[in-house]
């Protein structure tokens, strides 16, 4: 069992195994020492990276997801005896694997958050029939673009960590598929899934746990940032605003994944009102407990919601798929009310932060930056002279590989940029004056 979980599909058989470190600890080291991990500090979570020292970036978000996931994994190991039987490689929860998956889950996000992802996908699809998607880009980075000593490409991670990151176990090029894995990397992932005998469409318990902990962080930490920024105002006028409620309901109805939450079982508007009312009421109680200190209240509120969600995570039978499921659980069954509550809080963060008109103005600026960078690089005969030489050298060494056409190469280059670096390159190309030519890229 350990052999197929610790197998490294990209690593030469002659590579030395460490006798001092567990293989998953080696994966952790490779991830946090990678340039991609460091660049997460300069990529937007909700507010643009550089908006202020307080707000979260992709880096701090990933570390917080990893912390939640590792603690829950330890608890599930203690409280679910079947895990110790290790009956199936996908029905195991190793805290280090879950932590690695959490650290790497946002590696593929481009600069400027979801707007950057949206723009790159639109351009690639319109002009070249190629898709761009953050989760798929994760695997392109981990298995092809990243470099490490002794490897031709990628970080050569273990099978358990690769499948722990794979929350969408599908080929993204399939018709109608919005999320998944690009073809070249999918061939390897599919082979691992076949070796593991994974049911079609099912993720490992470790991937499911990482995904839910990402949702927990999103629905609690991003709201904390929103309160700090004044985008979410903790008073009845804000929480009872009919426009806010209408927007939340519309976000729920328009979500392509709405079927997962059983919204047909409830009056959506009534539940939205109830959750918002209860959230504000809890805030007022904690505000009094914290001697009316808003900063303490924010942190305590966030901590209690993280605890309320994380403490309810457990493993139940997924009878529809003949598999196991990590879920918010109450009385031995999935707690759909709590799941819907978490989704409403996620939508609250989305509507008040991402859909804020000032944020949308910044996103429009981001869209212009990405589009004009693309236009500058996409014609190879001109673009190759204004892209760093190490990138061009890598492309030329592997240009015969169908996995790296020039459009995909340009998408890789732009998507690897931090927000600030994208703005710097844009300024060098289009502003009247910007810095010095002796600055190191």
Description of the molecule:
- The chain has 441 residues and is mainly alpha-helical.
- The chain has 21 helices and 3 strands.
- It has helices spanning 2-6, 23-32, 35-39, 58-79, 82-85, 95-104, 113-128, 134-145, 159-165, 183-196, 205-228, 236-239, 242-254, 268-289, 294-310, 336-354, 357-377, 380-383, 389-398, 406-415, 419-430, and strands at residues 313-318, 323-330, 333-334.
- The protein has a 3-stranded antiparallel β-sheet with strand order 1-2-3.
- The radius of gyration is 22 Å and the shape is globular.
- It comes from Paenibacillus qinlingensis.
- Pfam families: HD, HD_assoc.
- This is DGTPase.
- Residues 58-219 form the HD domain.
Q: What secondary-structure arrangement, pairings included, does this model have?
A:
Layout: H1 2-6, H2 23-32, H3 35-39, H4 58-79, H5 82-85, H6 95-104, H7 113-128, H8 134-145, H9 159-165, H10 183-196, H11 205-228, H12 236-239, H13 242-254, H14 268-289, H15 294-310, E1 313-318, E2 323-330, E3 333-334, H16 336-354, H17 357-377, H18 380-383, H19 389-398, H20 406-415, H21 419-430
Antiparallel strand pairs: 1-2, 2-3
InterPro entries: dGTPase, dGTPase-like, HD/PDEase_dom, HD_domain, PHydrolase_assoc_dom
Organism: Paenibacillus qinlingensis
Protein name: DGTPase
